[in-house]
Amino acid sequence: FRAPSQPLKSVSFLAVHPRVPIAAALAGTSSAVMSEVSETQPHWSPLPEEWRRPLPLSSPNARHHMDKIGWPQMQESLAFRQLWLEVALLEKILYKNKSQHRGAAHFKRLQQVVRHLRLLRELSIPKLVEDAAAPFITRRKVLAGQVPRSPSRQVVGFLLCRLFAGCTLAEEIMEAIQ
C-alpha cells in the first residue's frame, strides 16, 4: 500500500487494483453490468486473491475479543439496508421527474447525491470488512500449536483507503444536500 503522491481531487483513487469493481464504475460501466459481474462470480471479494492470506497474531485471545465487540451487530449496521431502500425510492422519483425538472438546481443536486450514493454502494465496504475480519471470526477449533491470524498489511491499507473514500463521498453528499 502506498499513499498517493498528489492531493486527492476526486474519488478516482479508488481504483487500487484492476479487479476492484469501483474502477469499472468510475470508467462509466453501469450498475447493471456490475451486478451481472457479481452474479457470475458467486464468491466475489473486493480483495485480490494474493492479499487474502492472513498473518499470524501474537495474541491467542483475538477471537475472544472479536466476540466481545458484537460482530453480528456490527455487520448488520454496515449493511445500510434502510439507506439503500431509500436510495432506490429516490432514484425512482428522479427517473419519473427527469423531463419536468431537468434544468432546476435542486434536481441537479439530487442527481449528484444519487450519483455519490451509487459510488458509495460500489465501494462494497461491508463485504470488504467481512473479508478482512474472516480470520478472526472462524468458528473452527484451534488445533494445538496453531497460531491465530490477522489480515495482512495490504488488506488493512486497502480497507482504510476504501473507508477514506467513503468518508469523502459522505462529505460530498452532505455538501450537495445543503
Automatic annotation (TrEMBL):
Domain Nucleolus and neural progenitor protein-like N-terminal per the UniProt entry, residue ranges: 76-175
Pfam families: NEPRO_N
Signal peptide boundaries: none
PANTHER family: OS09G0504900 PROTEIN
Official protein name in the record: Nucleolus and neural progenitor protein-like N-terminal domain-containing protein
Organism: Tetraselmis chuii
